[in-house]
# Entry
Amino acid sequence: MIEQMLEKISEIMQTYEQLTDDIILLRFTVVNSCIVANLGEKPNEFVLVDTGLKTSGDFIIDTIEKLYGEKSYPKAIILTHGHFDHVGSVIQLIKTYNIPVYVHPLEIPYLTGKKDYPRGDSTVDDGMVAKMSKYFPNEALDLGGFIHKLPEDGTIPYMPGWKWILTKGHTPGHISLYRESDGTIIVGDALCTTKQESLISVLTQREQISGPPAYLTTNWEDAKHAIETITNLKPNLAVFSHGNPLEGEELRSHLKYLKDNFEELAKPEHGRFT
# Structure
């Protein structure tokens, strides 16, 4: 019931936005994903980063057809991690496109049917999303032969110039995607620009620099280190799975503020993993 409610909420706003020449942000109210194109030697190639909820699949397919043509398809799906709001339409998409899915090795047990994620911790915050989180889907998916490990050297298939960075804490194998040439980072859930624990904040996308969604974060020391890692990169543009993108000095000052005040701004006072 809770999952169906979130899916209905996600359909309130399904839009896309051209952020840069090669990044298209896909918005599904409660979560974002994105299309990243290859502007090098193969300009018609692109990948999908995360897949939203189950109700996101049709919109993703329609958007790809609209932007790239009816017979176009992503070369691959790159997952920042395997939580339900990032893999919701992955099965529909791999059946539609017959494409590989790449993920950090530490996430593979959750995507090959071997291990469930911990249930959401509804005690971390008084917000409505946090309270509902214990009912969120946590069961492992089994993507079988479609799932592949990301290369150990940090490169990302079909994304020349990009590297994956381990930003664990929210999950054991959470990654962010970074392009050094222009300082662009796709953060995933390592931090947010809206308070994801609050339903009002989610619906209004009210800007508030925040840590990872607290109700599903299992290692706060690692989560702190992930934010330090991202801050030290001094990125120029950041794309978040929850909240609006930030860029320039506003981004860097927000990152530093969160890093310096992590205990107060990000880490909950109580919860199973604090």
Notes: The domain at 2-265 is CATH 3.60.15.10 (Metallo-beta-lactamase; Chain A). The first helix runs from residue 2 to 10.
